[in-house]
Amino acid sequence: MTTTKTPTLEELHKNAADDFLPLNGTDYIELYVGNAKQSAHYYQHAFGFELVAYSGPETGQRELASYVLQQGKVRLVLTTSLIPNSVISGHVQRHGDGVKVLALWVDDAAKAHAETILRGAVSVSEPKTTFDEFGVVVTASIMTYGDTIHTFVERKNYTGPFLPGYKAAKSLFKTTPVGFKYIDHCVGNVALGDMNKWVKFYEEVMGFKLLITFDDHDISTEYTALMSKVVSNKNEYIKFPINEPAEGKKRSQIDEYLDFYQGAGVQHIAIATDDILHTVSELKSRGVEFLSIPGYYYDDLLQRVGKIDEDIQLLRELNILVDRDEEGYLLQIFTKPVEDRPTLFFEIIQRKGAKSFGKGNFKALFEAIEREQEIRGTL
Ligand code: FE2
Q: Hey, what domains does the chain have and what are their CATH numbers?
C-alpha cells in the first residue's frame, strides 16, 4: 500500500485556488429501480430516510416516478420508468436496480461541464437551466464508468425541496433516523485492466488526485484478490475508490459483481455516522442484513488496534470491524447487497481520526463475502 500524506491547511488553500473543478460535496445519489414506490418504502422504513420530494403523474410527469429521500446530508433519489422504452427502463433491464447518477454540488455547473469536456469528458447533457417558484437550477452531466454518470448541480439560486419538477412530499408514516451524517465515499467496480484508465480519467478530466493504492497483496485471501485505487477531489469531500478484479484461485467478488451488473458500476456507498453502535443496532432491528464476521476476528482485536472507546462485546455482537492508521481508528460494517442481484451494498463507517479505508479488515471482509458467494454458487 502507498499513501500520500495529509495536506496542510496552506496546501489545501493553494489547491482550492488552482482547482478547475471546485466541488462542495455530493448533491445526491440517484438509483434507477424497478419499483420506486416500494424501494422508497424500504429506505424510509429500514434505513430511516425521510421522504422530502416527489415527481410523477400527480405532478405532471408522465414518463417516470421519482422519490427524494433525505437523512443528514445524505440525499437518495429513487427513480423508475412508467414507459417501456426509456433510458431508465433499459438501465433497469440490463443492470437491475443500481446507481445511475453520482451528482456533485457545484457553484457553476456550466463551467464544471465546460472544463471537464475540454479535458476529454463525454457529455450526457449540456448545461440546462430549469426554474419554478423557488428559483433557478443549472444542471449538466458527463459519463463516468459503465452507464454511470456525474451530474453537476448548481443550486445557489434555488430554495425548493429538490429540483424544479419535484414537489415537496412527506413520509406517510413516522420515520426515525438512524444517525446517517454524510456520504463518506462511493466505490466503483470496473473490468480487469480498466482501473488505471478510470484513475487517469479522474486525475486528468476532473482534477482529482490519487490518495491510496492497494495492490493484490494488500487485498487478497487464500482464494480471491482485487486491486483498488482511491481518488479524491482537491478538498477531499469527494472520494472514489475504483476496484478491479485480480487473478486468484477462485472468482473474486468484483467478477461476480461485473457478471450480475453486466459491466462496471457503483459497488458500495459508504455513509458516515457519529455513533455506529446505535446506527447498526437500529438498522438490524429494522431488518437490514449485514455480513457476518467470525468470532475469532475479535479475539485478538485489541492487540491489533490498541485501546478503543467501544465495548468489544458489543462490537462482536453487531459484527462491527475496527482498524487503526497513523491518525486514529475507524469502525465499519457492510450490508449484504440490497437487491436480488449481488451488486450494490452499503457501508456504515465511523471515523475516529482515521482517514483510511480499513485495510486491516480487508481479509476478514473478503472471506465473509466469499462465504456468501459460496452460497450463491458464484465463487
Ligand atoms: Fe468502503
A: 15-168 (3.10.180.10), 180-376 (3.10.180.10)
